[in-house]
Design goal:
Layout: H1 3-17, H2 31-34, H3 38-41, E1 46-47, E2 54-61, E3 65-72, E4 77-84, E5 90-93, H4 102-105, E6 119-128, E7 133-145, E8 148-161, E9 172-175, H5 189-195, E10 203-207, E11 220-224, E12 232-240, E13 243-244, E14 247-251, E15 253-256, E16 261-263, E17 268-272, E18 279-282, H6 283-292, E19 296-297, E20 304-306, E21 317-321, E22 324-328, H7 330-333, E23 334-337, E24 340-343, E25 345-348, E26 358-361, H8 363-368, E27 369-374, E28 379-385
Domain Peptidase A1: 66-383
Keywords: Aspartyl protease, Disulfide bond, Hydrolase, Protease, Signal
Protein name: Cathepsin d
């Protein structure tokens, strides 16, 4: 889950360029404003008319954060969560968190005493993300997502959160990765949906809207228990999961076709990350790619910028997956903030010990491609999203 770091970095750079002009709510979240109207901040869940499949309406916040509504407890307490494909734990701020922990105080908090279905667990947890930590204790309650009520779901009541979580609109994170990745060592919400027979198929799918086309952030959909063919065109290209903890697969190679420039020549691994805004890769490769696209390094940082007047004429970038080219146009891989155009291709200098360099395909990629996560067949599918 890299969203916070990536989003804040891009927005901070843009703010630095136009200091005093750009006011990014992602930095200074006002809870009273953010949550003043549930009818606008939360999309009411839509339950499919036939049993075993449901859709969650997801809000797109400035193309850097996608979140949707859930409820916990009886009666249900409403929260917004990021449905994160690179983690497997679920946590929400606790009403018992200290007044001094500002990330907790700036979000809605779970009140266990207000729920008839709450059950005490008490096991402590500490979740480590690339961008920060969350510490607290475990509880158990009914969790409802788009009309599907999961009984006795274990989740974390967060007591302490790193300051980086001040920047998120969502209250918490709901992991959609494999349960083997769980730092709490508990089944995920989706796995419990399967075991409790709430969904008919071990498949979930993301359709992410573009903020440029839906100013209110509406239009994104998470489908639980299957796919929605009305949201993509053509056939799905499937590729096998190569490491059943993350949603990881193999890319054959990456290229700029009209320049005959190729990257990842011997194949490379990639992870699909719904909690990240950028496309992250080994810095040597991303720097070369941005340079070939005629980008400029921004003030000796790892970010690259482009002349906005050139964007419509810039080259496509193709990811060859299972022999099929998945094409990103310049309009899809450029992030425009005010009068500045940033590259979504971001370089990472180091990787975990023992791990080969890999790519992370965040929501920039997922907006362009409807993405299917098939746990039953350990595979991921891609098809061009309809916009």
């Amino acid at each position: 889950m890299h969203l916070v770091t990536n989003a804040v970095l891009i927005l901070a750079l843009a703010s630095r360029l136009v200091a005093g002009i750009v006011n990014i709510p992602l930095f200074r979240m006002n809870p009273e404003h953010q949550f003043a109207s549930l009818s606008t901040r939360l999309r009411l869940p839509f339950l499919n008319p036939y049993k075993g499949k449901a859709e969650v309406n997801i809000t797109n916040y400035e193309d850097v954060e996608f979140y949707g509504p859930i409820t916990i407890g009886t009666p249900g307490q409403v929260f917004n969560v990021i449905f994160d494909t690179t983690s497997a734990d679920f946590w929400i701020p606790s009403v018992n968190c200290p007044q001094t922990n500002m990330p907790c105080q700036s979000h809605r908090k779970y009140i266990s005493a207000a729920s008839k279905t709450f059950r005490h667990v008490g096991t402590m947890f500490n979740i480590t993300y690339k961008t920060g930590n969350v510490h607290g204790y475990q509880s158990k309650d009914t969790v409802t997502v788009s009309g599907l009520s999961v009984k006795k779901q274990v989740f974390g009541e967060a007591m302490l959160q790193s300051d980086i979580f001040l920047e998120t609109v969502a209250d918490g994170i709901l992991g959609m990765g494999f349960s083997s990745l769980s730092q709490m060592e508990e089944p995920t919400v989706f796995d419990n949906m399967l075991s409790q027979r709430l969904v008919r198929s071990p498949v979930f799918s993301f359709y992410l809207s573009s903020h440029k086309k839906t100013a209110d952030g509406a239009g994104s959909v998470l489908t639980l228990g299957g796919t929605n063919p009305g949201l993509f065109t053509g056939n799905l290209t499937f590729v096998a999961v190569t490491f059943a903890q993350f949603w990881q697969f193999k890319i054959d190679w990456i290229e700029i076709p009209d320049m005959r420039e190729s990257f990842c020549l011997e194949g490379c691994h990639a992870i699909v990350d719904s909690g990240s805004s950028l496309i992250v890769g080994p810095q040597r490769e991303t720097d070369k790619l941005n340079r070939k696209l005629r980008g400029s390094s921004f003030n000796n940082t790892d970010m690259w910028t482009f002349n906005c007047s050139r964007v419509s004429r810039m080259s496509d970038v193709e990811f060859i997956v299972n022999g099929t080219p998945l094409t990103l146009t310049s309009e899809e891989y450029i992030i425009k903030i005010d009068d500045f155009c940033f590259s979504a291709f971001y370089g990472r200098k180091t990787f975990p010990v023992g791990a080969d360099p890999y790519w992370v395909l965040g929501t920039t990629f997922m907006r362009a491609y409807y993405t299917v996560f098939d746990k039953g067949n350990n595979r991921i599918g891609f098809a061009k999203a309809k916009h």
